[in-house]
Amino acid sequence: MRKVADIAKVLGLLTLLCAAAPIGGTVPADAQGLPGAAKPSAGKPVAGKPGDKLLVEADELIYDNDKNTVTARGNAELHYGPRTLQADRVRYDRASSRVFAEGNVRLTDQDGAVVTGEKMELTDDFKSGFIDSLRIQQTVVKKGETIRTRFSSPRGERLEGEQTSFDYGTYTACEPCRDHPEKPPLWQVRAAKIIHNNETHTIYFEDSTVEIAGIPVAYLPYFESADPTVKRKSGFLTPRFINSTALGTGLTVPYFFNLAPDYDLTLSPSFLSRQGVLGQGEFRQRLDNGSYNLRVSGIFQTTPSAFLPGPLGAGDRDFRGSIESKGRFYINENWRTGWDLVGVTDKWFLDNYRIRNQSITTDYFREAVSTAYLIGQGDRSYFEMRGYYFKGLSSFDWQKEQPLVLPVIDYDKRINGPGELGGEVRFQANITSLTREATDFQGLPRTGTYLFSPSVNGISYPLYETCTTFNRNTCLVRGLAGTDTRASAQLSWRRTFIDDLGQAITPFAYLRTDAFFVNPSLSGYQNALVPQIASVDDGFTGRVMPAVGIDYRYPFVSDFGPLGVHTLEPIAQVIARPSENRIGHLPNEDAQSLVFDDTSLFQWDKFSGYDRVEGGVRTNLGAQYSVVTASGWYANAMFGESIQIAGVNSFRRGDIANVGLNSGLETAASDFVGRVQVSPNQNISLITRARFDQADFKVNRFETGITARFAPFLPLSLSAFYSYYEAQPLLGFSHRREGITATATYNITPNWFVTGSALVDLTHYLDTRTLYSEALTSYIANPVGNLPTYQNPGRFYLSGMSVGAGYQDECTTVSLNYIVSPIATVTGVSERNQTVLLRVELKTLGEADLRQNVGTATTADGIASAH
Questions:
Q1: Nearest CA among 771, 807, 804 for reference residue 789
Q2: Distance between alpha carbon 297 and the CA centroid of its chain, in Å?
Q3: Tens digit of pLDDT for each residue in 753-806?
Q4: Which of 543, 510, 540, 686 minimizes the C-alpha distance to 610?
Q5: pTM here?
Q6: Which terminus of the chain has a lower count of CB atoms within 10 Å, N or C?
Q7: pLDDT tens, 284-338?
Q8: 3-state DSSP call for residue 642?
Q9: E strand spans, 248-393
Q10: Alpha carbon of 50 to those of 45, 432, 702: distances in Å?
């Protein structure tokens, strides 16, 4: 029987080859040698051509000379060019050149699309015809994600293999339910007619309805959409709905222009019932060595009074707008350049009109950072040149205090030490120049006084922090007006020697030089008051800091088998150098963030920037212990302190910003610092670090937290951290700061999830109490208005939070989130911005976001009323 079947396949092949040729024609000579199980080429498929051969496989072949037909039955498989037709039974009518297929019909097209149906009537090249119970599945890999789209219809028609028409059809990207395939998918589009044009890659829908779980939710008489194979195509994008008190009800209708393969344009007009038309446009272009974009926005407001008057809002402006641009270019394999620019007419525009930009930070302090750069990187060298412009986007930001930083140049080069010296030689250089108009003062305590206190509706809003009295004990200079230029260079060497006992000895030396050119502005605004706080150098000043030192480590290692490898390592470091000079006489712009903990204990210079340099003879002492087991358990502990041996302690004398004071390093013997980290496996990590007072071991700084992923045992991932910082009155923090941050995501099912995060301020009530005390004192001195009242916010103040839930599968993403984000104010009190965000994405069809602000703080966004 098997032999008979093989003969039947060969005969069928020859018969269909003859059938494909004109009547009376001859079989091609090479057909005689083709096997019965002929297969199409595995190469790139091409469209069928008139000369292509029709190949067939079947269990049984029947040909009828009277009717001029050939029939293949049982696992029939026909190949014509790049197309393959499979069915239980296929009949070919030579007179009409039509192919009739029945039973489990499956047609695979040249692009991989699979067409299925109960019956098909096709031309002999399989390009055109009618199909009953039509179903098409098309698979596309896009950005690493596999997307499958599905069409279905009681009856459809193929035209020349380039267009398929579905009568009363459906379209979806959702997989059918395995257990109940008769149930409707999560979403689908049902239309009187669907036309899929494979040449233009467009899907047209007529008289259509969008259904969610079989329930109609939207009716569209006509619309079109690009199919998933399209990356860029001109047409309308998903509209965005807007609703707020200040803007009214509105709709954004984006239109995408695919102008060329390398550039495009998107216009997004927003029609707002209360403010008019907001115009937005974005141009993008990709070049051979990079890409850039330009986005502009603008509106002539019809109701400016919806916003607060200046300086709390833009209520006095008719035109408002912005311009944004980003560029990235690769000059060669080592050099690249680019920019990221944001310009706005006012600080509230982007937030008021909900224009999002990734260059804008809004987590706590709201600002837009514009920068341009040139970066070069070699095997052991690095160069970077940048310029910065900072735009404050909150009401209490005073732009005249923001510096223009241009340029910032960094260079870092490492080479092997010469000859017998060996080791590593490193050269570092930095040039920084910045200019600002007004000096940035900070009062001690921080809730001192402000330049302006405008009133709106009887409510006074303090703006632009300054000092009550201008002297060294009650006022700091965070940023000096005028121009400050500094050039720094450091040459260092180090080499590690390891003896037979395992002792690691690393001698090192460095020479640091700094040149300052300071031209302070002592006129205008409150700039003339700076000399009452500090005697700042004017003109050129130089500074040289040589240093020699040695680092000693002696690790003791023991292998306890199943109990792991244990390592105990004592560490001692001594650095000798002269005392730092000109403390308090030079500006400090880039070295104000001083945190003394386990990460900075053994740093040669503990200041965070170049404006300060550590001096004096100092020793850093400590030890660390670690254990690693074969099962993946890891633990590490470290403890130590820093001791000033001789010379002036750089951290005992505060500069014009008091950096160094209240840091734990200001005493000869520093606070103790420690760290404990435990990781039972790669998914769970617990870490605790602390700083203890040198005198009584009181906790001055404490941080502890956990990050964990419990899958596959529990579909939960979380992180939680607790932080405690003792009061630092000389830096403006008159009481302790304490808080908790936590985030968690729990997958209820593989598709459903809930997520949440929280920022809990445990000392907010201290801010509230201080503000009340100051307001009461002011009222007693001048009893005007209402008597201040005290409202206790409680020990646990929810400064920021988000809760949400969502659903995600291969075709749909839906999420709903309620977000409360903190906004810092000059008084240190957190205002809260509350937002409800709904996001729906129907893959291949579009996505929509609905964002609604509720109870927005007025001083944060410049809007006259909550919306």
A1: 771
A2: 23
A3: 999 999 999 998 888 887 777 777 777 877 877 777 788 888 888 888 899 999
A4: 543
A5: 0.80
A6: N
A7: 999 999 999 999 999 999 999 888 888 888 888 999 999 999 999 999 999 999 9
A8: strand
A9: 248-252, 255-260, 263-267, 270-272, 276-287, 290-300, 319-330, 335-344, 360-361, 367-377, 381-392
A10: 15, 72, 80
